[in-house]
């Protein structure tokens, strides 16, 4: 009787919290600033399907920031901005084409820069994938017909370094130089893609471990788990950009909201369905509906743009052949620490051993005195909190989060947990690393937009050879 009364109280508390969360989202949507899509100077720019970015970090030859310098953007759209104390600057543009960023020539000479202007070219179909980082360490092209644009570089480039370059006098010599440079840099590209694959795999593992714990304890494959990832990133955006909190408190806020929604889901949806002995197939259909409802709720409140969590462009540096930045390394370190902590929880704590017992045989665990419902509740809270944390780290790593980020990664999560072995936390981590590395390394050979397809192809091949996955156990059928 006491257990039933406690369950009813938790159910009522969950019903009371839902309107409060909805009201909070409504208030945030009202207070969110509208975003213009004409060329404008912004403190930080995140590319979306409707706007591209031209930005950089203005530094002198000694890598020291140059503040309070006026920069002008010209081309199909024009705007003016001033570098901040760290030398950061950014423009948001809505039209594709060539753009030129210029500064006063006297400023360029004063700080030893090799050019007072730089050019970039932005294509409309790449607005949501890349930003153009302008550099002033190379001389401007001799003419507008030059095939080498001195201003364009990858998003990992840094502005204001002391490097130099020269334009070729003929298209043949330019082609030869580009060919030899590509051959010399192929090894660096391989290491860079391997590094990116490991980072992405760690973040994918953070999402997948929680999903696999839910499957192990309940037998439910949750299609709404990706939305928990999106929720974490969006809540971090609310903390940093709307409430103007520092990044760490915003991340903690996002994780707490994610864990709270995990508890609410279990109390209002999954626990009642389990008590009514609804099958896992029917529950899985419910997760699909919940996924769609959450996706369009996010889109309603936050729009279809990519929301930037951080407020500045991080400075990049080299680790051997790899170019990275401190937020990326910090995110990877946090993911590793959390995954190690979950492993310690599962294998070295009483509750963790109870969780593994429920995963192996829930009926036997209940017969031995384990409170199965309490274990499942904790697993839902833990898995949704981890998913929210992965959304925060992914938003920092990818320079933004959107309403459907988690949905685009859902198939990769399923591929990771299936490849590693359903119901095994360590299998989910190994499967995630394999999927992440294969996906990023395959872009060296196939188009970047097809990299996820290569990871899914690896999944199919492995399952044909070992259907239970890498760490899964063979089960007798019949």
Automatic annotation (TrEMBL):
Domain (SD-repeat containing protein B) ranges: 55-119
Record field: compositional bias (Low complexity): 142-178
Intracellular or extracellular location(s): Cell membrane; Secreted
UniProt keyword Transport present: yes
Membrane topology: Multi-pass membrane protein
Region (Disordered): 138-178
Chief location category: membrane
Origin: domain of life: Bacteria
Membrane-crossing segments per the record: 194-216, 251-273, 285-309, 329-347, 378-397, 452-471
Pfam families assigned to the protein according to its UniProt record, in alphabetical order: BPD_transp_2, SdrD_B
Official protein name in the record: Branched-chain amino acid ABC transporter permease
Organism: Bifidobacterium imperatoris
